[in-house]
Amino acid sequence: MLNGFKQSKMSKTKFTKLSAADKGSLLDTLQARFEQNKNRHKGMDWPAVQERLEAHPTKLWSLHLMEESGGEPDVIGYDKKSGEYTFCDCAAESPKGRRSVCFDDQALESRKENKPKDSAMAMAEAMGINILDETQYRALQELGAFDLKTSSWIQTPPAIRKLGGALFCDRRYDTVFLYHNGAESYYAARGFRGLLKV
Fold it and tell me: How many domains does one find in the chain?
């Protein structure tokens, strides 16, 4: 359950302002993770990140959903030009609350039976985040070892998707691999990782 709604309902959720207690709890969690993983954001300071977060409540809601679904979001980048911080799901394995989903709603509708509860693209849209592309996924893997037992859907080029396929990645043998699958497929060990700029 994610803040009172089921995974299958996530694509229908809309922005809700966090209560003062939930906001404080989320900021405490994010700060603790930020301080414990400084290798992901060298040269950055938490007070500046928090100031940015508090100025963007809709982004806090997205981070809340990332956290509630097991993503363990953390700062992995900063854009000096725009002033935006980049958060990414940094859980060791693909987020538990976002697994067993096919790639997108087109794939979901194409299944005549044994449909998954949701699709990765619809969930990401509802959460206000973007699914990682291959470059972003590989950049994340430079900061640690992720998806050693699971895999994660990634953004797929239109030409591949048009033909019914979708891409996913994982890490095995200390190497990041890129694979393809039918977009309508879903597995208990495959979810997706999200990216959010604040």
Answer: 2
**Per-residue pLDDT reduced to its tens digit, 120-164:** 999 999 999 999 999 999 999 999 999 999 999 999 999 999 999
E-strand stretches of 71-162: 73-79, 84-89, 130-131, 151-154
Domain that holds residue 74: 16-89
82 and 107 share one domain: no
Strands 73-79 and 190-192: unpaired
Claim to verify: residue 59 and residue 108 sit in the same structural domain: no
Under 8 Å CB-to-CB from 144, ≥6 apart: which residues?
Answer: 40, 90, 92
Sign of CA dihedral 83, 35, 1, 193: positive
Question: In terms of domains, do 175 and 191 share one?
Answer: yes
Closest by CA to 109, choosing from 9, 17, 183, is 183
Give Cα 141 distance to the centre of its chain. 14
